[in-house]
Amino acid sequence: MDGVRIAAPGDFGRTCLDALLAAVEGIARPVVGLPTGNTPVALYEALDAAVRNGRADVSSWRPFAIDEYGGPRSHPCSNRAFFARYWDAIPGAQPVEQFDPEASDTTADCRRMDESVVRAGGLEVALLGIGMNGHLAFNEPGSAPTSQTRRVDLHQSSIVSGAHCWGEASPHWGVTLGLDRLLAARTVIVMANGEAKAAIVAAALRGPLTPDCPASFARDAARPVWVLDEAAASLLGG
Ligand code: PGA
């Protein structure tokens, strides 16, 4: 199917990287929305290796966090900590512009992030994982394609997923770029791996366009690219 790339076994990170490098090719200072979580780890490792061997250069990229947990900035399970580990380690990587979940005025902080993306000219690439419940960044089920950058209450499944790292302190809220900003990206790359994601990937790609599965709206983006491993693609049919 158009826009869907199935990675060969063991090749998920490199396939995601190929999609990302193709999306930024020829763009002088690409504005890139960056995800966290388990899904993109292989991509960041592949990108790090590509920079170190001269195949890629991220030094001109303008990176933005797509979301953050409503927890302490310094917590090792924060997205900030993830970027410190997987993004900042890449030679030449510029600091990620991030939400501040400890801001006294969360709404104002969301506005700051949103305006910063707009000032940068909008995202060239929105790089996204798909949540078990179909969320994109923290645009949880119920999010319309016009939903804006904002504070959100996390759904139970996101809290449970967060608990794998945060334990009992798993935050009940978060902040996220809105679907309006993410879906307006020149290229929207949605990544999914593993059998556990197969049903939600099938719902997003084959089901109705619906706020019940925010990832379904990625199909309507200007240039959607889905990077899946064989397990995540296993319920798509032919
Ligand atoms: P995961 O999270 O990569 O850790 O599964 C994806 C997401 O919830 O966005």
Coarse structural class? alpha/beta
- CA(first)-CA(last) distance: 8 Å
- Note the beta-strand portion: 15-25%
Radius of gyration: 16 Å
What percent of residues adopt helix (DSSP H or I)?
A: 25-40%
Poorly predicted regions are: none
Q: Using the coordinates shown, work out and report the CATH topology.
A: Rossmann fold
| CATH architecture field | 3-Layer(aba) Sandwich
Number of domains: 1
Total helix count?
7
CATH class: Alpha Beta
Question: What's the β-strand tally?
Answer: 9
Order of helices and strands: EHEHEEHHEEHEHEHE
Shape: globular
Q: What small molecules does the structure contain?
A: 2-phosphoglycolic acid
For the biggest sheet, the summary is: 6 strands, parallel
Strand order within the widest sheet? 1-9-8-5-2-3
Average pLDDT level: 97
